[in-house]
Amino acid sequence: MTKIASFLLTACTIFAQVPSTGPEFEVASIRPAQPNSPQQIQRQGITIEGGRVNLVGVRLVGLIPLAFRVPQNQVKGPDSMATESYDIVAKLPAGASEDQVPEMLQALLKERFKLEFHRENKEQSAYALVVAKGGLKVAESAPEANAPAPAAERDPNSPPPPTMLVPLGGGPVRVVGDSKGATVTGPRLGTVQAKEDPNGLRLEAPNITFDGLASILTQLVRAPVVDMTGLKGRYQVVLAMSRNEMSSAPPPPGPGGPVPDASDPTGSPIFAAVQKLGLKLESRKISLETIVVDHLEKTPTEN
Question: pTM score, two decimals?
Fold first, then answer.
């Protein structure tokens, strides 16, 4: 798995609190994770194969954003959420959709970890994605760009790759990664090709919304990015950074950390890459809906 696929797999995003009548896994097993096991290293994240949901080496601090589909910095709770990791194997009920997995994870957290939470609007340091003074420098997508991407060629005798669900771009998206990069598909993202080679990082998105782009930028700068362009169409976007730019960039702020001025030339080169699109990241205080964890057991109830 490439670094690109790995960063996408760590992306995080909230559903409304699931009522008792909401979808639930047919059965689920939760066990302490085996640190640094080959399975944990190779399959870390959430995958779905044949109705079986596998979560390997997940911590509650990462599982809660996955269940609620919000960035991790929009979840507040006790430090204990980051201390233990788990391996979870669950089975989808007959007729269930993969898109319902986040709701089922919420139900699992409430039943097995006794999760209690509430929502608050909290003002945070964040970036507003806006159109730069010089105007937009990307074209709108052609109608045919919105058609589903053709399936990648593969050995017909080999099983299909597992679905990796990532809460990105306003809902679960699917990631298929290999040694050359990753392909991400989702409602607001369209089909994004992410490539990392000796020259650097390149994201090609021929039919992305700016709301979807903001969700990707949130992962790259590791701070909330909110689409404030006012543009609701789909656009042809190419985002590229050289390897020198990537290696010389200072570490981005962590969850909840201070957001530097987007116009600061010493900031991440992602700012310059965004400006080439005729867009800009402006540092602002923005009120964001936050999930506040009121109670969470560190040890789940028995299987």
Answer: 0.73
